[in-house]
Design a protein that fits this description.
Among the domains are: 1-68 and 77-99, no CATH class; 275-330, no CATH class. It contains two helices and three strands; from the N terminus they run ααβββ. The chain has helices spanning 20-70, 78-96; strands spanning 291-297, 308-314, 320-326. It starts with 19 loop residues before the first helix and ends with a strand.
């Protein structure tokens, strides 16, 4: 038989100031009673398990008592002795084992306990969120939802969006911190060809990993790569197809004043290199000082019937110098 104690909330009654501490203590005692009731229920479950094991032990002992008389004529059965020892060990283990909630499929999931089962726990809702996890801890490695997998082909967290509509997303990570991270991937192994975050697509027009910066001001970055290794790469692009016009790294800009690829520091190119020579000169305004540019002037003249290659240098002082190179037939 169980009893319940219902206490009205502090907001429902205008208590005098001299009894506020008593009310607070009474609230704490109610919470302790609820916790003790849960512990008492767990103790009753343990007692029931021990009683069942004790009954099996008594039955096995009764069967063994016949063998005691027979031992004067033949040795006792070793298999029976092993069974008795196993029952004793099982009873001792059950007495020491912590209670696990939901030990079989169909059992209820109990908050605050470890819940195990031999099947899939599925939550389906016709509106709102199927499963919502939240932690109010303000420090340390606290997680709203934590997933683990022991399978080499499995995943700790797996998200699928079954919609075929535009913009369907499998997993969304969001942070409201000014220095936070929406999605953070870590591979803690210190050896091997490990990967922190990997994207994959099977569409011929798909993109494995895409970064977007929606800010219309400042120097927002779509994708940023960093490396701390002395021989590492901040960003590494690898086109593995052995045919076709593919690109290890491809940059494009829609701004007439922008740069598809900008290298701050030394630029190194190995292998055969090709630079596109446009037919018009660049605008001088957007060009910073200490830059070199070139273009092809196809206009034929008496001195250059095949056109000119014009090389333009904007010095550190902003002065522009040009040199014309007459082109000949290949």
């Amino acid at each position: 038989m169980t009893a319940s104690l219902e206490v009205p909330s502090a907001a429902a009654v205008a208590w005098p100031a001299d009894v506020s501490m008593i009310w607070q203590r009474l609230t704490e005692l109610v919470a302790e009673c609820v916790a003790l009731r849960a512990e008492l229920t767990a103790v009753h479950q343990r007692v029931a398990v021990l009683e069942a094991a004790n009954e099996q032990l008594r039955e096995a002992s009764a069967a063994t008592s016949v063998d005691v008389v027979d031992d004067r004529r033949q040795p006792a059965d070793p298999a029976r002795r092993s069974a008795i020892a196993g029952i004793i060990g099982l009873a001792a283990g059950m007495a020491l084992m912590p209670q696990i909630a939901g030990a079989a499929s169909g059992d209820p999931v109990k908050a605050g306990n470890s819940n195990t089962c031999n099947g899939t726990t599925r939550i389906t809702t016709s509106s709102g969120t199927g499963l919502h996890g939240k932690t109010t801890v303000t420090g340390g490695a606290a997680y709203g939802i934590h997933g683990e997998s022991l399978s080499a082909n499995g995943a700790g967290v797996y998200g699928v969006n079954m919609s075929t509509g535009t913009g369907a997303i499998g997993i969304i990570g969001q942070s409201i911190s000014t220095t936070g991270v929406g999605v953070y991937g870590v591979n803690s192994i210190t050896a091997g060809v490990t990967i922190g975050v990997r994207g994959r697509t099977n569409s011929p027009n798909g993109t494995s990993v895409k970064g977007e910066a929606f800010a219309t001001q400042g120097s927002a970055t779509g994708v940023s790569g960093e490396s701390m290794a002395p021989g590492g790469y901040g960003v590494f692009g690898y086109a593995k197809a052995n045919s076709g016009v593919n690109y290890g790294v491809y940059g494009q800009t829609l701004s007439p004043d922008g740069w598809a690829v900008h290298a701050q520091g030394r630029l190194r190119v190995t292998g055969r290199s090709f630079l596109h020579a446009p037919n018009t000169p660049p605008q001088l305004g957007p060009l910073p000082n200490s830059t070199i540019s070139f273009w092809h002037d196809p206009a034929a003249s008496s001195g250059a019937p095949n056109g000119l290659l014009v090389v333009q240098v904007k010095t550190s002082a902003g002065t522009v110098r040009r040199a014309n190179i007459a082109l000949s037939l290949a």
